[in-house]
Amino acid sequence: DSGVTQTPKHLITATGQRVTLRCSPRSGDLSVYWYQQSLDQGLQFLIQYYNGEERAKGNILERFSAQQFPDLHSELNLSSLELGDSALYFCASSPTLRDNEQFFGPGTRLTVL
Amino acid sequence: GENVGLHLPTLSVQEGDNSIINCAYSNSASDYFIWYKQESGKGPQFIIDIRSNMDKRQGQRVTVLLNKTVKHLSLQIAATQPGDSAVYFCAENSKNRDDKIIFGKGTRLHILP
């Protein structure tokens, strides 16, 4: 158990819909990262927040957004969902701004029908 | 362009033998190279990292070798055990990329009884 929690575990929705994925980092970790994992693209970095502020962006679509709240939990919002958005979404956390060792949650499996 | 990739998608190793997982990279400016392990149904887990000015680093039953001349990275696992069955990702981190960790595609390690 990494100490990072993600909800929900599974999510099934329809195209065009909007969903919110939630992540609680390990106690004391200030950085939260979001990744998308699909069969053909591997593990893709989406976005990083540090102590409430956006710090780095990867290949995150404009339809996707995230935020980190004062209690350091984070949410990833996915809107206008497409079939191709079906994937595993992982949240990870780490203590500081730049850590090679990130602690990953169990992931949320999103299925868009 | 930048690319972190793996030579072989699947590797089968006899239990008790040593495993060697290879990775090629193209970004000479990477500061760190990192190995993660992902067991089925779980999030990735940090194994070990190596700074770009080092050639070798050892951990518990694992050794990472870095050959900057040919831009090659390898992870050696000694006395492979059934619990080593997983997908192994190499990744890299560089200061010129806003602290984003870029993951390779992954190699699946099968342990034969």
Q: What best-fitting shape of chain B do the alpha-carbon axes yield?
A: globular
Q: Main β-sheet of chain A: number of strands, strand sense, barrel status?
A: 7 strands, mixed
The parts of chain B where pLDDT drops under 50 for at least 5 residues are: none
* Rg of chain A (CA only): 13 Å
Helix content of chain A: under 10%
If interface size is counted as residues with C-beta under 8 Å from the partner's C-beta, which chains form the largest one?
A-B, 24 and 20 residues
Task: Estimate the global geometry of chain A from the Cα principal axes.
Answer: globular
Order of helices and strands of chain A: EEEEEEEEEEE
> What's the pLDDT, averaged over the residues of chain A?
95
The tally of helices of chain B reads: 0
Query: How much β-strand is present in the residues of chain B?
Result: over 45%
Structural overview:
The complex is a heterodimer of chains A (113) and B (113). Chain A has 113 residues and is mostly beta strands. Chain A has no helices and eleven strands. In chain A, strands 2, 4, 5, 6, 9, 10 and 11 form a seven-stranded mixed beta sheet that branches. In chain A, strands 1-3-8-7 form a four-stranded antiparallel beta sheet, with no helix packed on it. In chain A, a hairpin with a 2-residue loop joins strand 5 and strand 6. The model of chain A has no long low-confidence stretch (mean pLDDT 95). Chain B has 113 residues and is an all-beta fold. Helices cover 0% and strands 54% of the residues of chain B. In chain B, strands 2, 4, 5, 9, 10 and 11 form a six-stranded mixed beta sheet that branches. Chain B has a five-stranded antiparallel beta sheet with strand order 1-3-8-7-6, with no helix packed on it. In chain B, a hairpin with a 3-residue loop joins strand 6 and strand 7. Chains A and B meet through strand 5, strand 6 and strand 10 of A and strand 5 and strand 10 of B.
